[in-house]
Amino acid sequence: MAQYLLRRVTTIILALWLIITVTFLIMHSIPGGPFASEKKVPDVIKHNLEERYHLNDPLGKQYIDYLNHLVHLDLGPSFKYEYRTVNDIIKEGFPVSATLGSLAIAFSLVVGLLAGVISALRQNHWQDYLAMVLATLSFSVPSFILSGLLMYFFAYKLQLLPPAMWGTWQQAILPTLALAALPTAFIARLMRSSMLEVLQQDYIKTARAKGLSERVIVLRHGVRNAILPVVTYLGFLVTEVLLGSFVVESIFAIPGLGRWFVISILNRDYTVILGVTVFYSAFLMLMNFLVDLAYVAVDPRIKLVDRKDV
Amino acid sequence: MTGKMEITPQMFKPVERDALAAEEIACPSVGYWQDVWLRLKQNKLAMTGLVIIALLALLALVGPHLSAHSYDDQDLQMVNQPPGGGYWFGTDSLGRDLFTRVCYGARISLAIGLLTSVICMVIGVLYGGISGYLGGRVDEIMMRFVEVIYSIPFLLYVILLMVLLEPGLKSIFIALGIVYWQNMARVVRGQVLSLKEQEYIYAARLLGAGTWRILLRHLIPNTMGPIIVSMTLLVPEAIFTEAFLSFLGLGVSAPMASWGVLASDGIQGLRNYPWQLFFPALFISITMLAFNFVGDGLRDALDPRLRR
């Protein structure tokens, strides 16, 4: 266990270092530098800008500075908005994104697990077919298209829900659905197949033979064992929701970090792009690590040893 | 004694035994791939998927010639026309014929899907093959590298790369190739690891075959099954990712258009001109479904545990 933890932590640190170095190098190989624009900037101003952002220092020194800032959790200033730092942007946008993301994760877990269990219990009945057809459909629609379709039908055609912005609970419904569709489908399929497998195990037969009620068999003996693969999926779930948030927040005009990220891509605001990328990467790797730990806690059979054949 | 019948050898006649007939095989012998094909044919969803893919390919080839308009013809008199009249799918905000553009987008999207999966196949097969076959320390280091890379949320890096590279088809191939080869490498390595202990590999080595020959002639052809399944499932994933990049404004550059670009253009005018989103969305979704059905079908057809 200790060995495994050590291995995971070193992997994460290695990966983080790789990310930071690559982002740094990318930053400095941008053709024309971050201040290149269509408008011709007078040389003096350009020089002042470079002085201001220390772009005249030798590359080695800049790299050390950059690492030093990162260690102190300082992601630097924005290149497009004079008075904002990347930290400001994250502080402002991340809580909104986290709220929307949590809603989507909660939705996909509740609905996905429920759908999976029901379709396993009612295998080859209409409930099963309905759930699996819906799941397959949501697999085949990219999230931005789904957002567009939801917005068109529920906001414009039926006028049931507000099409955009953030603040009231009605405004949260469509983005949550759009963001949760794919993970819900995935969890439902995963849970269904895992549940089907568990229901064939001998201990389920034993439980039946003991005369336990169907409810106890399904919940305590079935679901508790079948849920394990879903726990391993949680790491991917967070990644999925986070990447989806770029699209969904942009379409529904939600002032989250994902939307900021997309805007900074369109603006070519390089420091924001890089800073947010580093932030997202660290966040996701931390999440994956926590999920791994949770997995050990949930399933005592798992002994995390040096996995040679992953 | 009287009731007993005399049995003499003369009463018996040896049956002519046709040596050839005994050896004859009742059914024609079925090779591995024929077997796979026979099983795939049973799978209705997979066959439907194959037919749809064939139709899409046909549309991509001949579609643009069916219409009187070219994909980059702008007609500012006919901006945002609904479907009907001379325009089967309507027109976009620059008065370009949406049908032609969707057909043209099929070329680009399908090309992105197929080429990406070929690129990943080549990188993944070489990397995984070498890692699995050499084993030991080399394997450990190579797989550790994959593990480190794997823990990085890679779509973020595709975005960074696309910001950095010139927008265009070539950058998309590079970016997607960098992301998706690792899975293929893992699949191939796993296969090679179990195959390399087989007798025919020992035999080949005994006959003096070199590492490369064993890898390329013996090991990799025998891992083709899982490789093809991964490739089939990679196609929709690449198309999906390309659509995502297009939405971020990092897709192929105008006037070219993939389905992703068309759909994200369609989002802009969604309220008043919904068909500009519906048609590309429809095509993306159908393609996703078709490739996923074929991939799943192939996986079932190749899985020896399902053999009867």
Biggest sheet character of chain A = none
Number of strands of chain B: 0
Count up the helices of chain A. Answer: 12
**Major β-sheet annotation of chain B:** none
So what's the overall shape of chain B? flat
Which range does the strand content of chain B fall in? under 5%
Oligomer: heterodimer
Unreliable stretches of chain A: 305-310
Uncertain segments of chain B are none
User: What is the third-level CATH name, the topology of chain A?
Assistant: MetI-like fold
Helical percentage of chain B: 55-70%
Helicity range of the residues of chain A?
A: over 70%
Q: End-to-end distance of chain A, in Å?
A: 16 Å
How many discrete domains of chain A?
A: 1
Question: What class would the helix/strand composition of chain A place it in?
Answer: mainly alpha
What is the general shape of chain A?
A: flat
CATH level 1 name of chain A: Mainly Alpha
The radius of gyration over CA of chain B amounts to 28 Å
**CATH superfamily of chain A, called what?**
MetI-like
Note down, in words, how this protein is organized.
The complex is a heterodimer of chains A (310) and B (308). Chain A contains twelve helices and no strands. With 310 residues, chain A is mostly helical. By secondary structure, chain B is mainly α. Chain B starts with 18 loop residues before the first helix and ends in a 6-residue tail after the last helix. The chains are: A mainly alpha (310), B mainly alpha (308).
